[in-house]
Design brief:
Blueprint (H helix, E strand, L loop, with lengths): L4 H12 L1 H18 L9 H12 L9 H18 L9 H12 L2 H22 L8 H83 L4 H27 L18 H10 L3 E7 L7 H21 L5 E8 L3 E8 L3 H6 L3 H4 L2 H10 L3 E6 L5 E8 L5
Parallel strand pairs: 1-2
Antiparallel strand pairs: 2-3, 3-5, 4-5
Length: 395
């Protein structure tokens, strides 16, 4: 049943101010059990009034200090048994304290409160209800004992509910922390992916630009048309690199509705090889087997591996080098090979560029899609990169 807004506001206030609620409860019990019945205590009314206050006032601390408040009530109750011949209505405060011990105190105090309550029920029955009518002892003791057990049971239910709420809150906090950790891990992985992409784009494009610029500078005087062609290639490469960088950086913009060109795939490798060939490197493309369906992720990885390998050839293989790019569509995987006949030994001594974004980045790309990659100097000179990307990850 849905509660009204006014009731919900009162409930929120009560949850936020438990001590104030307990003070109001203590005041209400004192008014009903001490002030109202006061004229009826014909024997020692002052003592009855003071003892009644001492029994009800500790209710204000039933949640803050349940054990200490219960100790005060027990002490006053024992004193009452010896000092007064009249059963005080304020003794109902003992039931509230038994409830508080069961709900808010440690387990040992909860069980102790139940035992003391049952003992108090027997003592009160013997002291106040067996003198005049002997047949009233057992019913009275049973009635008070049932009230004590009921109060303790209600308090124990309250304890179970509080523990359940605390467990749910702890679980919610753990889930929130886990969600934050997953978001941070996802952000870290995305930053690493973007770093690899930027490295591939910038390193490859700059290598082509440098090679074209060097060729244009030497051919400028003897063959102006060749110099013009080199400048056009530099411009085209720069525009493509700029477009690729905008595409990568665009994913960092929130709420962007822009659309970007699709990522390169295996079908774009021949264009890549032709661009590198036009920059002055003698490179051949060999394709074996019939192309097979390959997911977008491995296709991008294949393109980037070839791009990074050719970039390393441009930077490290030396002048008058040759390179070969081989694509082999095997039954279970696409195998890539990028070979050159340049300074393989010296290239192997060069660490990965971009602080680990070179050869290591290619290895990570291949492993991400269930493949493998090996890179190292070739026997007899040169450098080779061999990779295999399966068509589908086995489950």
């Amino acid at each position: 049943m849905e509660r009204s807004p006014a009731v919900e506001r009162v409930a929120r206030w009560a949850r936020a101010h438990p001590f104030a609620v307990d003070c109001w409860l203590a005041a209400a019990v004192a008014f009903c059990t001490v002030l109202l019945p006061a004229p009826g205590y014909w024997e020692n009314p002052t003592g009855a009034f003071l003892l009644g206050l001492l029994l009800t006032v500790p209710l204000a601390w039933r949640r803050r200090a349940p054990v200490h408040a219960a100790a005060v009530v027990i002490a006053v109750g024992l004193f009452e048994l010896g000092a007064l011949n009249t059963f005080l209505a304020a003794n109902v405060a003992a039931l509230f304290m038994i409830y508080a011990l069961a709900a808010y105190a440690p387990r040992w105090a909860s069980r102790g409160g139940l035992a003391v309550g049952l003992l108090g029920a027997l003592l009160a029955s013997l002291r106040y209800f067996s003198g005049n009518v002997s047949d009233a002892l057992v019913p009275t003791a049973l009635a008070i004992g049932v009230a004590v057990v009921a109060s303790w049971a209600l308090g124990d239910l309250r304890r179970a509910r509080l523990l359940r709420v605390a467990a749910l809150e702890e679980r919610a906090e753990l889930l929130e922390l886990e969600r934050d950790q997953e978001m941070r891990l996802a952000a870290t992985a995305e930053r690493a992916r973007i770093a690899r992409e930027l490295h591939d784009v910038v390193a490859h494009s700059l290598s082509v630009v440098i090679a074209q610029a060097d060729g244009g500078r030497y051919a400028g005087k003897a063959d102006p048309e060749a110099a013009t062609g080199a400048l056009e290639a530099i411009a085209a490469t720069g525009r493509q690199a700029l477009a690729d960088m905008r595409s990568l950086l665009g994913v960092l913009r929130e709420g962007s509705a822009e659309e970007y060109a699709p990522q390169p795939d295996v079908a774009a490798i021949p264009v890549l090889v032709e661009d590198v060939r036009s920059s002055g490197l003698d490179v051949d493309l060999i394709v074996e087997g019939d192309p097979r369906p390959l997911p977008a992720g491995p296709q991008l990885a294949a393109y980037r591996i070839v791009q990074e390998s050719l970039t390393n050839v441009l930077k490290h293989a030396g002048p008058a080098s040759r390179a070969w790019v081989r694509l082999q569509w095997r039954p279970d995987a696409l195998e890539l090979s990028v070979l050159d006949d340049g300074r393989g030994a010296s290239a192997a001594m060069v660490d990965a560029d971009g602080q680990g974004q070179g050869v290591r980045g290619m290895v990570e790309r291949a492993m991400l899609h269930g493949g493998r990659l090996e890179a190292g100097p070739r026997t007899g000179g040169g450098f080779g990169v061999h990779a295999a990307l399966p068509y589908g990850v086995r489950r």
